[in-house]
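hiii, so i know i said id send this last week but things got crazy w the move. better late than never?? heres the sequnce for the chain we talked about at the cafe, plus the structure i predicted for it. fair warning i was half asleep when i ran it
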Amino acid sequence: MKKRLETLRHEIERINLEMLDLLCRRGEVVTEMRALKNELGIPLFSPEREERMLRELVAANRGPYPDTAIQPVFREIFRASLAVMEAQAENEMRVSRGKRREDLLIAIGNLVVGREPIVVAGPCAIESEEQLEAVAAHIKAAGVTMMRGGAFKPRSSPYAFQGLGDEGLVILQRVAKRHGLLTVTEVTDTRSVDQVARYADVLQVGARNMANYEILREVGRTKRPVLLKRGMAATIDELLWAAEYIVLQGNEQVILCERGIRTFERATRNTLDISAIPLLRQRTYLPVIADVSHAAGRRDILAALARAALAAGAQGVMVEVHPDPPAARSDAQQQLSLEQFTAFMSQINLTRPHAD
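okay and structure toks below
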């Protein structure tokens, strides 16, 4: 009996090795399938196919293991296979350093993003031509080349000011042309992408739309550079995958923006994730900037946050400026006055961006 037991043990060990060999072969097939799915643009995970395979396996089960034991075993195999495909896909991301070692330089008019650090400044929302004119004249005199300003404003509250819409786009373009400024404004709807692209030099995808894949695809089909903000609860991986959606449509001109993430801290509106900046610089060739205004939600620490972001490797900072912050129709507490912006520029001691 002992001899028979030993024989059976050896048989189990042999079967284990055969099962391992089959799993490895399955992994090789999965790897080939992932490459084909990537070329065809097919999602890696198909829940319907997985459930069908499970039903077929249960139907073919001849025991002695019950169906309730077979199902979790194969679910784990499926899960491990998906993890293999996702890991390989991440390594082959078009936006990864593995695809391009040198930093991407994005030429926008006479400005090059990704070379010397830049400053993007302007009001949270465009409220009138007089308001934007005052800001444009001031930031231009300070050496800023790109002006921000929201024409469409997605707000947490449906009762908050939503922007001037089409009128805001017209004002933005008109004022920018008068002062020789480049512009960036937010796209909030797939139906308005082409329209916004006719007025703005850079299309912004805000934090609330970072995972709006239809908007990402649509801005990816344009020839405009895209400023992609990190979602308020998004991981670095999720931000990079969002950028991948844009690049897959043929538009490599993506600027990543760390704008603070939601944490338990209440002293600031969000928490500026300084560590994300060097991590992004390591993992992608795309330029990275920091929006210190939305991170802080308060104006008194903006210069300090900007210096920290630049020291961490950010290739620019975005800051909000308003001629009369207390009267601002949105985010009044985080916008700098014109005088405060002058002090801000002095405090961050930034070399003026290089222009070709």
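btw The CA atoms of residues 260 and 272 lie 4 Å apart. thought thatd interest u
miss u guys!!
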